[in-house]
Write a structure and sequence with these properties.
4-stranded mixed sheet, globular, 11 strands, Arc Repressor Mutant, subunit A, about 15% strand
Length: about 350
C-alpha cells in the first residue's frame, strides 16, 4: 500500500485532468498486458485495429513493451487541466536523453530491458519522434472519431465527483474514486497497487486526478519529488460515452432540465455561469449572484477544489476565472431553453 500524505495546500491544489494521450496508451495496450478480458479497451481495439496505420508500430511497441506499464517520461507533466494531444506530444519530444535513460533503467538492465525500450534509449530524439508521430497517426485514424463522446463521459464523471466534493468534502470524493483508494481522516489517501509499499508527501503540489474511460478495474499512481503526482482512475460504472445530442431540428429546441444544476446543484451552477461572464473578485461575484461575499467565497472554494475555477491574487483581492474543464462543462451544459 502506498500512502499519499495531503497537507492543506495539497487539498486546494488537487484537480482533475483530461488527457487524450493517457487514453491513447490505455486503449491500445495489448490484451493481457494492461487490461482484462471484456474491457472497454479490448472492445474498442477490436473495432479499430483494422484501421491502425503502419506509422503507429513504434508507439504500440513502446506501450506494450512491459506488463508493468510505460516509462515515467511517457506521461506528460503539463500545467493545462484539459490537455490537447499536440501539447502532450510536444512535451514528449522535449524529454531530455538523460530522462529517457533513467526511465528505461527502471525496467532492468542488459538483456532484461524490453527490446522496444532499449531501442528507444539508443535512438534518442529520433526514437521519441517516431513514437510521437506514431501516436498522432493512431489518434487521427482510430481514436479521434470517438474522442468527443469519450470526453463527454469524462466530463460527466468529473462533474459528478465535483458535486460530491462540494457537498461532502474532497476527502469523501477521493474515497469514492476506487475501492483501492481509501481516504483516512488524518489526511492520507491509501492506494493499493499490488505489493508496492511506502509513503509519499505531496509537498504542497497537490494531486492530479486523471479519469480514464478505458481503465476499469484498477488505479495507477505516479509520484515523485520532481514532478506533479497523478492518480489514474476509472470513471463511474454508471457513466458511458453518450451519443452526441442533436443540434438542429425539433429535438434541439425542446426545453430541457438544467444538466449543470443536476450535477453541481442550482446554486453552484449559477456561480459557475457567473464566473463565466468575466473574471471577477469575490465581491463582484457576490454582487452578480445577489448573495453575501462569505457565501460567494464558499461556493467559489468548492468549485476551485473541483477544478472548475481557478483563483489568483491581485494585490489585496482575489480574482476567479474558469478553468478549461469548467469552460468545457459549460459548453456541454448550456442553460435550459425557456418554455415556448
Amino acid at each position: 500500500m502506498i500512502a499519499l500524505k495531503f497537507g492543506v495546500a495539497d487539498l486546494a491544489r488537487t484537480r482533475f485532468v483530461i488527457s487524450p494521450f493517457d487514453h491513447l496508451m490505455a486503449g491500445s495496450a495489448r490484451l493481457g498486458v494492461h487490461q482484462g478480458s471484456g474491457s472497454r479497451s479490448e472492445r474498442w481495439w477490436r473495432d479499430v485495429r483494422r484501421h491502425v496505420p503502419h506509422r503507429a508500430v513504434r508507439f504500440l511497441e513502446v506501450v506494450n513493451a512491459s506488463p508493468i506499464g510505460v516509462p515515467d517520461f511517457m506521461v506528460a507533466d503539463l500545467d493545462a487541466v484539459r490537455r490537447q494531444l499536440t501539447d502532450e506530444l510536444d512535451a514528449l519530444l522535449s524529454v531530455p536523453q538523460q530522462a529517457v535513460e533513467e526511465g528505461v533503467a527502471g525496467f532492468g538492465s542488459g538483456p532484461d530491458v524490453p527490446t522496444a525500450l532499449a531501442r528507444l534509449r539508443e535512438d534518442g530524439s529520433r526514437g521519441l519522434r517516431e513514437v510521437s508521430d506514431g501516436a498522432w497517426a493512431l489518434f487521427r485514424a482510430c481514436l479521434a472519431p470517438d474522442w468527443p463522446d469519450i470526453r463527454r463521459a469524462l466530463e460527466a464523471d468529473i462533474a459528478a465527483r465535483a458535486r460530491t466534493a462540494a457537498r461532502s468534502g474532497i476527502g469523501e470524493m477521493l474515497d469514492s474514486l476506487h475501492p483501492n483508494a481509501v481516504w483516512r481522516d488524518e489526511g492520507v489517501l491509501e492506494c493499493t497497487l499490488g505489493d508496492l509499499e511506502g509513503s509519499f508527501d505531496l509537498g504542497g503540489r497537490g494531486l492530479e486526478l486523471r479519469p480514464n474511460y478505458f481503465v476499469q478495474r484498477s488505479i495507477g499512481l505516479l509520484a515523485g519529488p520532481d514532478r506533479q503526482s497523478l492518480l489514474l482512475h476509472p470513471i463511474a460504472t454508471s457513466i458511458t460515452a453518450p451519443a452526441a445530442a442533436p443540434t438542429t431540428g425539433p429535438a434541439a429546441r425542446t426545453p430541457a432540465a438544467d444538466g449543470l444544476a443536476a450535477v453541481l446543484g442550482p446554486a453552484r451552477a449559477r456561480v459557475l455561469r457567473a464566473v463565466a461572464g468575466s473574471d471577477c473578485s469575490t465581491t463582484e461575484l457576490a454582487r452578480r449572484l445577489g448573495v453575501t461575499p462569505p457565501s460567494a467565497s464558499a461556493h467559489a472554494a468548492a468549485l476551485r477544489t473541483a477544478g472548475l475555477i481557478a483563483t489568483r491574487r491581485e494585490g489585496r483581492q482575489v480574482r476567479h476565472t474558469l478553468t478549461e474543464v469548467g469552460h468545457d462543462l459549460l459548453l456541454d451544459n448550456p442553460p435550459p431553453l425557456p418554455p415556448a
